[in-house]
Protein: ATP phosphoribosyltransferase
Amino acid sequence: MLRVAVPNKGALSVASAEILSEAGYKQRSDSKKLTLVDAENGVEFFYLRPRDIALYVADGTLDIGITGRDLLRDSGANATELRPLGFGRSRFFFAGPAGRYASLADLHGLRIATSYVGVVQAYLDEHGIDATVTRLDGAVETSIQLGVADVIADVVETGSTLRQAGLATFGESLLDSEAVLIGRPDDERTVEQAGALRVFRRRVEGVLVARSYVMMDYDIAETDVAAATAAAPGIESPTISPLQREGWVAVRVMVPRAGAQRLMDELYDLGARGILMTEIHACRL
Ligand SMILES: Nc1ncnc2c1ncn2[C@@H]1O[C@H](COP(=O)(O)OP(=O)(O)OP(=O)(O)O)[C@@H](O)[C@H]1O
Ligand SMILES: O=P(O)(O)OC[C@H]1O[C@H](OP(=O)(O)OP(=O)(O)O)[C@H](O)[C@@H]1O
Ligand SMILES: [Mg+2]
Structure:
């Protein structure tokens, strides 16, 4: 049975379970449940703290998992990013009392509080900055007010937590993060495991493609097909079917969701009519 790690709570948990459900896997109905067997699909899910997931995957206890790129990096675990998943996006910044610090050079000799010691220390080492890093579990923003740190380094999404604490970022983002699918780099597995893993990855891929593409259908005169299919070539190749109306065809093609409205305008200008856009719920390419 394939053993899959899923965030049990926090910023990544709901969207992770959504992807897995859309991929046809059973998901827990009770958020207190920590494991779940989907016997029909040969998968066992383990709901774990996202921070621990890279460790379980790296040491082979679990086969594949979902976590944040920042947490993977922070863990230093020998797990590899297989695919970004398009949710849980965040950036990672140093921050201090608004207006007090301006650049990374200001970090020398300061006390930095963070839950991401691995990421922060690696950055300081790389830039030759000598500062003291203190690990806190969360709510790091308050550590400055409490006098235990001069600056913090933390995840920033909307920035509202920092603003409310009277803090502001300075310097560049240390890393851009999002939820990622992770696995082991040295994939030595039984044939059965490798097959199950391939199916799992293909299913997740299918959900992500279905989310980022839509189906476009239109009718067009045969003389204008070449121009229209050049504007929307699809992934493989558009499907072209004859219409009862002499000299006209129906075209069906997958197009990226982003820019689909603009493409409809363009196809219309090229002579397409009856242009329809529909959702794709799942696919295997
Ligand atoms: N607004 C956000 N707050 C926190 N993490 C976020 C946010 N948006 C995206 N993330 C990502 O979610 C992951 C952190 O997940 P989570 O919030 O579950 O961890 P945690 O802070 O250790 O747990 P918790 O807050 O439940 O104690 C990281 O990959 C982070 O980049
Ligand atoms: O930029 P924002 O949209 O405000 O989001 C970022 C904040 O959210 C996270 O905290 P979380 O709620 O996970 O609490 P924690 O610090 O205890 O982990 C993170 O640590 C920041 O504090
Ligand atoms: Mg958190």
Observations:
- Residues 191-212 form the longest helix (22 residues).
- The mean pLDDT is 95.
- The pocket of adenosine-5'-triphosphate (ligand 1) is lined by residues 7, 9-12, 50-51, 68, 70-71, 88, 90, 138, 155, 157, 177 (CB under 6 Å).
